[in-house]
Design the sequence.
């Protein structure tokens, strides 16, 4: 099964599901949500899924969902911040006045 990113608002995190049956949590990105902003605070991937690009898929899925919801992104998490830095097409999600603070 192809990995899929799902929002788990009850846990305040996005999860990437993978494995043979698509039910194993391969990683997650924790967030804090306000009315118009989503602050990513921690991202983690399960070592069993290392080297499969799960972190990038998770970041892309979470950021695509934030864009679809019209949310501004505050990338406090070093992984999400670094991923945005490598994919500048996502930098517009970070409010322009805050980009320098995040090194973007």
Sequence:
């Amino acid at each position: 099964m192809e990995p899929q990113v799902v929002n788990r608002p009850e846990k305040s995190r996005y999860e990437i599901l993978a494995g043979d049956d698509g039910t194993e949590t391969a990683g997650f990105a924790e967030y804090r949500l306000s009315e118009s902003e989503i602050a990513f605070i921690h991202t983690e991937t399960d070592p069993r899924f290392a080297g499969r690009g799960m972190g990038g898929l998770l970041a892309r899925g979470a950021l695509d969902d934030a864009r679809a919801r019209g949310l501004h992104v505050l990338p406090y998490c070093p992984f999400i911040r670094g991923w945005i830095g490598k994919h500048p097409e996502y930098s517009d999600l970070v409010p322009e006045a805050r980009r320098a603070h995040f090194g973007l």
Notes: The chain has one domain: 4-102. Residues 26 and 101 are 30 Å apart (CA to CA). The chain is about 25% helix and 35% strand.
